[in-house]
Amino acid sequence: MLKRFKQYLQKITKNRNNRRQKIMQIDNHVVQVGTTGYYVSRALITDVPEMLAIERAVYAGKTPWDENAFKTELRRQSGRFYIVMRHEDRLCAFCGCAFDDRRQDAHITNIAVHPDFQNQGLGSFMMKTMIKRAGYLKYRTVTLEVRYSNTNAQRLYQNLGFEKTGVKKRYYFGDHEDAIDMTYKVLTDREDD
Q: Which residues form the N-acetyltransferase domain (predicted)?
């Protein structure tokens, strides 16, 4: 009896892991955002220099995350999902998310769109991609922190359905700016398997 139960648990765990791996994949493909086609793929270590260049362009020459932070995230085999968007072989946007099965939360770790490509729907597309994956995993929430001064990003997140849920005082390294916590409720009437 115990042997059969162990086999049953192994089968369930294997099926759940296979489903999760499938959800955390992205086929390299072209998507239409507005009137422009963008190539979407999973972020690779080789994308890090371009990701840092986008951060410098967005954050006035600074990089909130350094090269090692990005590489560490991209090397993690489970619980992380990073995508990049390219137009004519130029990296123009990226987004990263940490998926926590225990808390049933997908936490947006980083998102940036090069200023040349802002206000064209790329940020919204990437956020919706992460929200969909959280839904497929039957997570309860998608969360993030945003700078208090970044009202454009706050407006984007609110338009997607995020709500302000708190403030982290002096959160950001360097300038110690406050961060606003924002939460998107993925499933209100969650069905258990």
A: 39-187
